[in-house]
From TrEMBL:
Pfam families: BPD_transp_1. It is found in: Cell membrane. Residues 64-244 form the ABC transmembrane type-1 domain. It comes from Actinosynnema mirum (strain ATCC 29888 / DSM 43827 / JCM 3225 / NBRC 14064 / NCIMB 13271 / NRRL B-12336 / IMRU 3971 / 101). This is Binding-protein-dependent transport systems inner membrane component.
Length: 258
């Protein structure tokens, strides 16, 4: 049986596809105007042709794989760090008071200012980009999970005492399942920030990646490659967001969470 929201989702999807088609048509029309040169606005057809050529040569695939590897590993590390810190902060308030000011300072500092420091410390390889991505990913997860765990009913604590659960087992069996919707909500924000962080890190210093490729294209006045990398980065962010959103909706439906 389809859910009551299925028609609404279908309508939203159709509206999105129509909007995308209209946008592409408007872009194609604008690019076809004599007053708009190719070096200012290439047409979608030209970009597709150039992207296919780059993929066949192997260059674009390498850079795409590099950025995906950075984002996925950084998000995974950031998620684990955010959840572990959240559990510790709820149990040890003194630890939260000790570390949270430092965490907040790091988060409010522009990442484009932190990135050169991380690159200098960790080098031009993938490690510096993963570190930067983990830094921006874990904070929304940390804040959401801490708030959720602090609202956990006292019956959960009583149950853990009755069953003689250790702290680790309580976190695994009771706290993490209870905080899962909050974790996924934070992850939706985190994956978008992760793509931005990857590009910043690759702009500052890298040997591969879509951000690195875009910077090279900018230096060479190659607007087609700039557009291609920008579109691919948008697609990565959109796909990751859509996957997390789908998982979140499934979790809410499975556990009847509003």
């Amino acid at each position: 049986m389809s859910s009551p929201t299925a028609p609404a989702r279908g309508t939203a999807l159709l509206a999105g596809l129509v909007s995308l088609a209209v946008g592409i048509a408007a872009w194609w029309t604008a690019a076809s105007l004599p007053v708009v040169p190719d070096y200012v606005l290439p047409s979608p057809g030209e970009l597709v042709s150039r992207a296919v050529t780059l993929f066949r040569s192997g260059g674009l695939g390498v850079h795409l794989a590099q950025t995906l590897a950075e984002v996925l590993q950084g998000v995974l590390i950031g998620t684990v760090a955010g959840v572990l810190l959240a559990v510790l902060f709820v149990r040890l308030r003194w630890l939260e008071k000790l570390l949270m000011p430092v965490i907040v300072v790091v988060q409010v500092t522009p990442k484009i200012s932190i990135a050169p420091l991380i690159v200098l410390w960790l080098g031009l390889g993938i490690g510096s980009k993963i570190t930067l991505i983990a830094l921006v990913t874990f904070y929304p997860i940390l804040v959401n999970v801490v708030a959720k765990l602090r609202g956990m009913p006292t019956a959960f604590d009583d149950l853990s005492v009755v069953l003689g659960m250790s702290g680790a087992r309580k976190a695994r069996v009771l706290q993490l399942p209870f905080a899962l919707p909050a974790l996924l909500a934070g992850l939706r924000v985190g994956v978008l920030q992760a793509v931005t962080a990857a590009v910043i890190g690759e702009f500052i210093g890298a040997q591969a990646g879509l951000g690195y490729l875009e910077k090279q294209a900018q230096d060479n006045d190659d607007i087609q490659v700039v557009f291609i990398t920008l579109i691919l980065l948008c697609l990565i962010g959109w796909v990751l967001y859509a996957v997390v959103d789908l998982v979140e909706r499934q979790v809410k439906a499975r556990f009847d969470i509003g």
